[in-house]
Design a protein that fits this description.
It is built from 25 helices and 24 strands. By secondary structure, it is α+β, with helices and mostly antiparallel strands. It has 6 domains: about 60 residues, Helix hairpin bin (Helix Hairpins); about 250 residues, DNA ligase/mRNA capping enzyme (D-amino Acid Aminotransferase, Chain A, domain 1), CATH 3.30.470; about 110 residues, Beta Barrel (OB fold (Dihydrolipoamide Acetyltransferase, E2P)), CATH 2.40.50.140; about 70 residues, Orthogonal Bundle (DNA polymerase, domain 1), CATH 1.10.150.20; about 80 residues, Orthogonal Bundle (DNA polymerase, domain 1); about 70 residues, Rossmann fold (3-Layer(aba) Sandwich), CATH 3.40.50.10190. The protein has a 5-stranded mixed beta sheet. Helix 1 runs antiparallel to helix 2 and helix 12 crosses helix 13. The termini are far apart.
Length: about 675
């Protein structure tokens, strides 16, 4: 078994090296990345771990030992007077502490008295741009180059001269090498991509891709026409290893000579302060016009650098602390089919556990057969997984070069995996245009379980203590079958169940009793009607006025498709789904019984106060940097607005954050006003 595992590891090492080398070439040499920086980092991280645990495998040709990429045709090569390195990465406080301790041990061995003194750490934002190296002779810009492979780069001097923020002459007449990053504003990326789309040209993937592509133009007029930006962060005086005592002195010199230095640089005196700097910027990393993918940490005392030295590719005095990745790579270990509360069959990928966006993820939904076919995802595949903030993890793409040799395409079953009933596409407003498959047995145990879990959940009836495992136990013991049964539970029913005692039984019965008082919006959402989410339930609730539950029942059962479609934010499919549900005899009986048990706050048919957003409907898509999705909803509602889950011709505004999805495309198609986060904040004020 050990030999078999070792053989698999060596095979994986070879596959990873080939894949990483290919993607590095696309990124560095061609400015045409196929995967994100974060996904690339994840592949490198896996390779580093495998190489560490399989030390007999030669490292000589490994991409983990190289810097940058090859030189493009069309540019003159230039040899760097000072080797160009790339920083090693750390991904958490533990690794940061290990880096610090490693440095102190190296200095102790070298007899350096500063090994155990208080250190200053320079914290700088890691700008996602293209590294440039500028050489000044007698104060005049002589050569501008790309990093290349770290030893030889591309001579792009004439293009560098087109950048307004790059000084052509500096007052210090020493020969110096200045290092920085060229970047472009996110807003400029959007404008240039719009122009390229009109001309049917390939779009730039991100601001870094645009900056690199611009600097590698052979026509300097194109470079001059684009507003390239720079930040400089390092320099060396040729022939003088101790020109500056601290890194802070270097930055001050750069500013004095007219170079642009990022104002968010900070010198701190402990690793805890470093962590705070990283945490603060993680929270609003997307709020800047430039891309940021982490924080570079350098020892402020430059006299330590000589004793610390370098690894094969990195200086030891500095390290790049990467933000929690929102995209990572992992392996699909299995695909299983789950049955939800509406009967929908959902394929779920079981993944090799991976840390993404600050949380450990082991599963991701594959939605339906069309999505599986589009991705061509199979068991054994290496995939790119994305999770931003509270967004559900999703598989973005597979990496075909890492696919095992013997794999088969996955197909959803023709029978329900839980009850064995036939599956089909739903009719009658419950999925005509959908590609989803549904179990045709309404009494399927999986559907019953999921419906009861949903009914008791926090955003529905909020029955505290009735989580998934408790609901499953009550269902298996035949104590509940429908939501009505929950309100018939008695303390003695629970006391004899495993893990239930007198106190826990009393607490659950009390929670059930408390949940009897609720709002119409929560009640409608709790029913689990297909297509009726929180926002839609709220819209329907706001349209009804009633004095008591009896009048409410009468109005619910009399509602027609036309009544619902008149509500701003509700379309044909939602209306048909709602009417079908409340008029189904079995479900109608359950609703009627619940309305004799629950106390739903009456609503008066009075004119609502006119507020700023009264009569307006908003749709939110993507991740907002300054507030959560729920906070944005509450702000809109507090100003009289409505929030819908789907875009229609009745939508007034679509608020777009990072990684906006199909709702953005739909808004563009319908000509709906689109607000970015800054515009949304202004509207709120």
């Amino acid at each position: 078994m050990k030999k078999e595992a070792a053989a698999k590891n060596l095979e994986r090492i070879g596959e990873l090296r080939a894949a990483i080398a290919r993607h590095a070439d696309l990124y560095h040499a061609h400015d045409a990345p196929e995967i994100s920086d974060e996904a690339y980092d994840a592949l490198v991280r896996e390779l580093l771990l495998l190489e560490k645990n399989n030390s007999k495998k030669a490292l000589k040709d490994s991409p983990t030992q190289s810097v940058g990429g090859k030189i493009l045709e069309g540019f003159v090569k230039t040899r760097h007077s000072i080797p160009q390195w790339s920083y090693d990465n750390v991904f958490g406080m533990d690794e940061l502490v290990q880096w610090d301790e490693r440095n102190r041990k190296i200095l102790e061995k070298a007899g350096n008295k500063k090994a155990r003194t208080l250190w200053g750490y320079g914290c700088e934002l890691k700008i996602d741009g293209l590294k440039i190296i500028l050489t000044y002779e007698d104060g005049v810009l002589k050569i501008g180059a790309t990093r290349g492979d770290g030893t030889v780069g591309e001579d792009i001097t004439e293009n560098i001269r087109m950048i307004k923020s790059v000084p052509q002459v500096i007052s210090d007449k020493r020969n110096v090498v200045v290092i920085g990053e060229v970047w472009m504003k996110k807003s400029d990326l959007e404008k240039i991509n719009q122009e390229r789309a009109r001309e049917d040209l390939p779009l730039y993937a991100n601001p870094r891709n645009l900056a690199a592509g611009t600097l590698r133009q052979l026509d300097t007029s194109i470079v001059a026409s684009r507003d390239l930006q720079t930040f400089f962060y390092d320099l060396a005086v040729l022939g003088d290893d101790h020109a500056f005592e601290t890194h802070a002195d270097e930055l001050a010199f750069l500013k004095k000579m007219g170079f642009s230095v990022n104002k968010e640089t900070k010198i701190v005196n402990s690793l805890e302060q470093v962590q705070k700097f990283v945490d603060d910027w993680t929270a609003h990393r997307n709020a800047q016009q430039y891309g940021i993918d982490g924080v570079v940490i350098k020892l402020d005392d430059t006299s330590l650098r000589a004793d610390l030295g370098y690894t094969a590719k990195s200086p030891r005095f500095g390290v790049a602390y990467k933000f929690p990745a929102e995209e990572v790579t992992t392996v699909v270990e299995n695909i299983e089919v789950q049955v939800g509360r509406t009967g929908a069959l959902t394929p779920v990928a079981h993944l090799r556990s991976v840390l993404v966006a600050g949380s450990t993820v082991a599963r991701a939904t594959l939605h339906n057969q069309d999505e599986i076919d589009r991705l061509d995802v199979r068991v054994g595949d290496t995939v790119i997984l994305r999770k931003a903030g509270d967004i559900i993890p999703e598989i973005l793409q597979i990496l075909p070069e890492l696919r095992p040799k013997k794999t088969t395409a996955f197909k959803l079953p023709s029978e329900c995996p839980v009850c064995g009933a036939a599956v089909s596409k739903r009719k009658g407003g419950l999925g005509d245009d959908s590609v989803a498959l549904f179990c045709t047995n309404r009494h399927c145990p999986a559907q019953s379980l999921e419906n009861l879990i949903h009914f008791a959940s926090k955003k529905a009836m909020n029955i505290v203590g009735m989580g998934e495992k408790i609901v499953e136990k009550l269902l298996n013991e035949n104590l509940i079958k429908t939501p009505v049964d929950i309100y018939g539970l008695k303390k003695e029913d629970l006391e004899n169940l495993e893990k239930f005692g007198d106190l826990s039984a009393s607490n659950l019965i009390e929670s059930v009793e408390i949940s009897k008082k609720t709002t119409l919006a929560k009640f409608l959402f709790a029913l689990g009607i297909h297509h009726i989410g929180e926002e839609t339930a709220d819209l329907i609730a706001q349209s009804l006025s009633f004095k008591n539950n009896s009048e409410l029942a009468e109005k619910l059962f009399k509602m027609t498709d036309d009544d619902l479609i008149k509500i701003n934010g509700i379309g044909d499919t939602v209306a048909e789904s709602f009417v079908d549900y409340v008029n189904d005899p079995e479900r109608k009986e359950i609703i009627s019984e619940l309305l004799t048990i629950l106390t739903i706050a009456p609503q008066k048919a009075e004119a609502k106060k006119q507020l700023k957003f009264t009569g307006m409907t908003f749709v939110l898509t993507g991740t907002l940097a300054t507030m959560s999705r729920d906070e944005a909803k509450e702000k809109i509602k507090s100003l009289g607005g409505k929030v819908s889950s789907s875009v229609s011709s009745k939508t007034d505004y679509v608020v777009v954050g990072e990684d906006a999805g199909s709702k953005y495309d739909e808004a563009v198609k319908l000509g709906i006003k689109i607000l970015d986060e800054e515009e949304f904040q202004k509207l709120l004020k």
